[in-house]
């Protein structure tokens, strides 16, 4: 039996996972194959979301106290003060957590805010988008109420795709403009040929008119 479960920390800081996923009677049924020689082997594979890895990349700058909640990177504080003043729920939602948890949570929030505040739209390369995605996934693990921020982050993440689409459309327009120019050149050359053909036709018609169409064809005699 293959089952999947995503670990989500609850208000106590842990999750118990599945309460049950197979009946005891079914587990003990030898025909099901779960028990072999009265032994049941359970294979577990654990994967950790990529965003967690950012926690290992802690800033090495000066740490200062943030509103008595914990010590965070000094450069994060102006950004944290700004958003916490606008969204007080950010301060309330983690008051019952441990000081270490709160410190990590606001460090993650500050890291994301600083990225958004110090990065220009023109700097959103593929690597920058990947970095922002990791920062966002890291922040999500701390269960802040981020309804106010998520739409903006998602719009920034698709900015590179929009820029790529604009570049492709610009290339298409350039190709079509070049094709129109080429065809105009071909048309101009054809118009020159047409005028020359008209002149030749007029000359040929003039010479043709000189022929007496009622004259007997006959044949030459020696």
Automatic annotation (TrEMBL):
Biological processes per GO annotation: proteolysis
Regions annotated as coiled coil: 159-214
Protein name (record): Ubiquitin-specific protease 12
Residue ranges annotated for the MATH domain, each copy included: 1-46
Keywords associated with the record: Coiled coil, Hydrolase, Protease
SUPFAM superfamilies linked to this entry: TRAF domain-like
Stored InterPro entries: MATH/TRAF_dom, MCC, TRAF-like
GO molecular function, one term: peptidase activity
Organism: Prunus dulcis (Almond)
PROSITE patterns the record matches: MATH
